[in-house]
Design brief:
By secondary structure, the protein is α/β, with parallel strands linked by helices. Helix content is about 35%, strand content about 10%. The chain has helices at about 50-60, 80-95, 105-110, 125-135, 145-150, 165-170, 170-180, 190-195, 230-240, 255-275; strands spanning about 30-40, 70-75, 100-105, 120, 215-220, 245. It has a six-stranded parallel beta sheet, with helices on both faces. Strand 3, helix 3 and strand 4 (about 120) form a beta-alpha-beta unit.
């Protein structure tokens, strides 16, 4: 697996392949800084964690924070991964986020966004393997109806789930695209250090793919038993020093959102906005 940089040049280049932007002086950062939150399977615009962040992130910002407002944006995207990816990349183009957060299955969509620092909550890197091979079972009459009923989302602004071969089989290629060229070499323990350090560069990996990543895993996450969520898989692709655990479940509880996720968000935003680098 090739290695790339996680340092100062992590914020240079493009938001996504083929999407260019003009460098912006941090001294003239917009009054509003956007965070794009990518929900998990069956989540949506009213998902719990981004709702907590919307309500409470402002109070966690220091007085010296170099922007007037942090806007947490979460939108419901399509369950079919390529359709969802196109929707999300249009939002990236629109919002030019300073930070992307991916939750559970949505982490794969977050990984496909390059050139922006990313945080992850309970990243389900192996779920697409299960979904991809489960797709063949949906060819059996009645299986799609049964899965749709079992995994029906809660009422509200939630992602519609339809377990058809057309929707599930593309998850295999989706995972491959998300993890391609993602091996990181991280030095230092502080956020500023991890964002600012340089690491080895490979000619086969574009600079825009060299992004800061950090993940949170629940110690009592029941999906870790099946391997859908796997710290071992994460370490294989991203190495040591890129993850931590919290004493909770797959669905990060509010106390850990506030005590662990929010401080990391603030630290990353400060590192981004105070660097002499483009701001998305």
């Amino acid at each position: 697996m090739p290695s790339c940089r996680t340092g100062n040049d992590a914020f240079a280049g493009t938001v996504a392949a083929g999407v260019n932007y003009e460098p912006i002086n941090p001294a003239v950062v917009s009054e509003v800084v956007n965070i794009l939150y990518i929900h998990g399977m069956g989540g949506g615009g009213d998902s719990r964690i981004p709702s907590i962040l919307k309500e409470r992130i402002g109070a966690a910002l220091p007085e010296s924070f170099p922007a007037e407002e942090v806007n947490v944006v979460v939108r419901t995207y399509d369950f079919e991964p390529e359709t969802g990816h196109m929707q999300i990349m249009a939002w990236v183009e629109e919002l030019r986020p300073a930070l992307v957060i991916g939750e559970s299955l949505g982490s794969l969509q977050a990984l496909r966004i390059r050139g922006v620092p990313r945080l992850f909550v309970s990243p389900s890197l192996n779920a697409p393997i299960y979904l991809g091979y489960l797709s063949f079972l949906t060819l059996v009459p009645g299986v799609t109806w049964l899965l749709d009923w079992i995994y029906r989302p809660r009422p509200g602004d939630r992602q519609p789930l339809h377990f058809t071969f057309r929707n599930l089989y593309p998850y295999i290629a989706h995972r491959k695209a998300a993890l391609s060229g993602q091996r990181l070499s991280v030095a230092g323990r502080s956020v500023a250090g991890r964002v600012g350090d340089t690491c080895r560069q490979s000619g086969s990996v574009p600079e825009s793919a060299c992004d800061y990543c950090f993940a949170f895993f629940g110690e009592h996450d029941h999906y870790r038993r099946s391997g859908v969520v796997s710290i071992r898989t994460w370490k294989r692709h991203f190495g040591e020093g890129t993850w931590t655990t919290y004493p909770g479940t797959h669905f990060m509880e509010e106390e850990y959102v506030m005590s662990m996720l929010v401080p990391e968000i603030v630290s990353v935003l400060l590192a981004v906005l105070r660097k002499d680098r483009p701001v998305f």
